[in-house]
Design brief:
single chain, 79 residues, alpha+beta, Structural Genomics Hypothetical 15.5 Kd Protein In mrcA-pckA Intergenic Region, Chain A, five-stranded mixed beta sheet, two-stranded antiparallel sheet, 2 helices, 28% strand, globular
Amino acid sequence: MKIKVKVAPKEHKEFILKGEYIRLDDLLKNVGVVNTGGHAKIIIQDGEVKVNGEVCTMRGKKMRSGDSAEFEHVIYEVK
């Protein structure tokens, strides 16, 4: 017997960068994923966030135009 698994497509959202870069924890706060920097720190250090498709545990990671962050099946593209 074959089992079919249906995977929901990932949602894409844009974040317009106002400077040269934004830190990953600040990006997550700005897009509304978390309310505080402490919460951002926890989910990043727990490996729940991907940057450009790979798990990133650096909360101070500099996100520049062209980078993307993924959390809970939503991809935030930095433009």
